[in-house]
């Protein structure tokens, strides 16, 4: 089974947390080179753990197993005799190598902590495919995909970590979990569900409040609007006014060919709606990854790409040519490397193994983000749960459970609730990230801390440190490192008292 392009657009533009659309390729060579430079050996070794299919039932099918991939780096580990810590990344909805390559913070701080690094892949993604590793079988229907849930994934991580510590004779080694975006949500939930395994969690850009009437469905696009408007009022107005112009031109005789040429679209151009989706994707992901240094995460991008997009739109050389302005902006996201000769709106490849996020967005990860008010940079619209449910029913044959995440992990009255029973969690959010609207933005207690960066973007704190990083970002990472150090010191103190 393959995801239809228009369904990918629906689910991933507005629902996906940590994913690149299939419209753009991801060149990872630069990040791999950086990892290699920092570690003369291979940056990680891939290993496999025999994982159970179903942790919560005892019927015969539950005892089926699959090969669960994880990556490990022991270059800096102090070893079990010193009870040196184990830093675990709770994998997202894609190939785990992609996330390891983009979580340089763990590599950067590992030497100081003498930490073992472990990156665990999420079931049904990358190479961790149940049912014999056959995607055609694993993705075939709701009966097999029903084992793709966040609770099952967390249980996978718990089982693997316990077994790994046992095999390393490191039973007393403290474990700290890390994660960004959906992985950050999993890290925070892991700390709450398995406090006997992880002593603390760094949850970066984790919108755990983006569910069930907790966060406004207008929040996501309001933040994107604010990002572009903060750079230039003209930039905001040009983008906001462009959708009607594209729609009107697309209806004229020869209009689609005019649009195709104006935006450098390849010959297999579809329709005006596809073009609008392509442009909206660029604005969404540029806002998410508005990093202060050049990046190569979703696409190669310059530092502060939102500013660069608006610079292209405000270029006086394009005068009143709206399409030329938008073409210049789109090039920032889709062609900063300058290698594209045309843009393929019908590209359906998936270089990151993100195949089944659509399933998760149709079952439990019901995160309202599609609302657009009159001020929005995108066309005015309302979030409709019924539309989501109907699409999910048509495609997967399932009814979403919009209340399940808050039932399973909480979310309502979180500041009051977690103050009573939670501890040792860091929630980082950058306010330029549209997902920050669903994040924890203020301290809950002395041990559940919110770090908020006004200029921060999507899990920017987890990226490799560079000499060009601004002071505020260096300060964020220093705060996180100091807090983690206190967790580990307290753990060692308590361990000594136990003996």
Automatic annotation (TrEMBL):
InterPro entries linked to this entry: AB_hydrolase_fold, Peptidase_S28, Ser_carbopepase_S28_SKS
An example Gene Ontology biological process: proteolysis
Gene3D superfamilies (alphabetical): alpha/beta hydrolase, Serine carboxypeptidase S28, SKS domain
Keywords recorded for this protein, A-Z: Glycoprotein, Hydrolase, Protease, Signal
Signal peptide (from-to): 1-24
A molecular-function term among this protein's GO annotations: serine-type exopeptidase activity
Family according to the record: Belongs to the peptidase S28 family.
Protein name: Lysosomal Pro-X carboxypeptidase
Species: Hibiscus trionum
Lineage of origin: Eukaryota, Viridiplantae, Streptophyta, Embryophyta, Tracheophyta
